Amino acid sequence: MLAEVRLVIAPKEARLTIRHGEDVVEDEVWKFEGPMSRTEARELAEVAFHDTYDLVQYAVHGDS
Predict the structure, then answer these.
(1) Residue 11 — φ and ψ, nearest 5°?
(2) Residue 63 has pLDDT above 80, yes or no
């Protein structure tokens, strides 16, 4: 693996981690004021996925 970005959404926190190979480069944690619902977590994950998809699509195919 060259690089990995991981988003984990739990009821009480979200964690975003980036690795280069096996090395953790950044690791951020956000604590929620109240528990996150499944619906909110799903929506957040979908937004993150679609934004990442667009980024990789652009990196691979450019602005076409």
Answers:
(1) -60, -30
(2) no
